[in-house]
Specification:
Length: about 210
């Protein structure tokens, strides 16, 4: 697999071979789906909460005597069958949506996503970000010249100027190369690295 190399000005400057250990894997959609579910589920926060009979304000006194009234027997006013009582099976804020997936499977799913991008020729590499790309308008010019209409830029965490310059561009997203994740890789078409960030990627996983 190869990726097109671009200069700081957005001009094509040959190609770079991609490591088959990361970009030449078989695409396993099942693993990708599981990794996406993992990310989405583990990001969930349980907000909805219905009060149980123990949390509803009210007396626990029996409303009236058991026998002799001609009415059905009742307990306290907090009973779920009474209006204003607690919920019997409502949602609670202590629910846990966490899903687990072992490290080997997570890596295999990530490599499948990277390989899918490489097969579709959607992986691009820019040599580096020049000093003229520190402003949003210059970053837009670079993105346009590279023909990235929808892309995620995986850059080194220390490229803070690139993060700042690209955060207001709606069609692209800048993330650290150490935070490649299925939601961003599936949402955006192109995957763009710098020379430094792809070397960092290889150092992390090879």
């Amino acid at each position: 697999m190869e990726a097109v190399l671009y200069t700081q000005e957005g001009k094509e400057n040959g190609t770079i071979a991609l490591n088959d250990a990361l970009f030449g894997r078989e695409v396993q959609m099942g693993l990708i789906h599981r990794l996406l579910r993992l990310q989405r589920s583990n990001a969930r926060i349980a907000i909805a909460h219905a009060k149980t009979r123990a949390e509803v304000i009210g007396s626990t006194r029996k409303l009236y005597k058991q026998k002799g009234t001609g009415s059905a027997r009742v307990g306290d006013a907090r009973s779920p069958v009474r209006r204003g009582g607690g919920a019997a099976f409502g949602p609670t804020k202590d629910r846990n949506f966490t899903i687990r997936m072992n490290k080997k499977e997570r890596r295999a799913a990530l490599f499948s996503l990277l390989s899918a991008k490489a097969v579709e020729n959607n992986v691009k590499i820019v040599e580096s970000f020049g000093s003229d790309t520190q402003k949003t308008k210059h970053m837009i010019d670079l993105v346009t010249k590279m023909n990235v209409t929808s892309g995620v830029f995986a850059v080194c965490p220390e490229d803070t100027l690139a993060f700042v310059a690209g955060r207001n561009i709606p069609t692209v997203k800048f993330i650290g190369v150490n935070y490649l994740n299925p939601m961003d890789l599936l949402k955006y078409n192109n995957l763009v690295f710098t020379k430094a960030s792809i070397e960092k990627l290889y150092a992390m996983y090879l």
